[in-house]
């Protein structure tokens, strides 16, 4: 009887050890996927850059230029009705 309890305890400990190693391996690969630029103590914190305002102004100007180009392309499209039978007749 004593040997059976000892064996169950040993098996339970081994299962716990295997589970802990599996969790450790899974978290190690997830830690490797942390956002670039963030380091150990900075995980979860946003790092502010000094030139964010300059980038925002560039992005606004780029968006305005993109909108102009899009609208110009729409104006250049022909305004005729689509005829699905045009190649049959």
What does this structure look like?
- With 89 residues, this protein is mostly helical.
- It is built from 2 helices and no strands.
- The protein has helices at residues 2-31, 52-76.
- The protein is elongated and about 90 Å long.
- The termini are far apart.
Write the SSE topology.
Layout lengths: L1 H30 L20 H25 L13
* Broad structural category: mainly alpha
**Topology as H/E string?**
HH
Radius of gyration: 32 Å
Largest sheet: none
Tell me the β content. under 5%
- C-alpha end-to-end distance: 94 Å
* Unreliable stretches: none
User: What general form does the structure show?
Assistant: elongated
The pLDDT mean sits at 78
| Helical residue percent band | 55-70%
- SS element count, helices: 2
**DSSP strand count:** 0
Which characteristics define this entry?
mainly alpha; single chain; 2 helices; 89 residues
Brief digest:
By secondary structure, the chain is mostly helical.
């Amino acid at each position: 009887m004593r040997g059976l309890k000892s064996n169950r305890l040993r098996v339970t400990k081994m299962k716990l050890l295997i589970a802990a190693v599996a969790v450790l391996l899974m978290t190690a690969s997830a830690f490797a996927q942390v956002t670039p630029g963030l380091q150990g103590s900075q995980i979860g914190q946003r790092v502010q850059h000094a030139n964010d305002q300059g980038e925002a102004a560039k992005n606004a100007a780029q968006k305005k230029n993109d909108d102009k180009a899009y609208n110009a392309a729409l104006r250049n499209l022909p305004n005729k009705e689509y005829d699905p039978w045009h190649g049959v007749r």
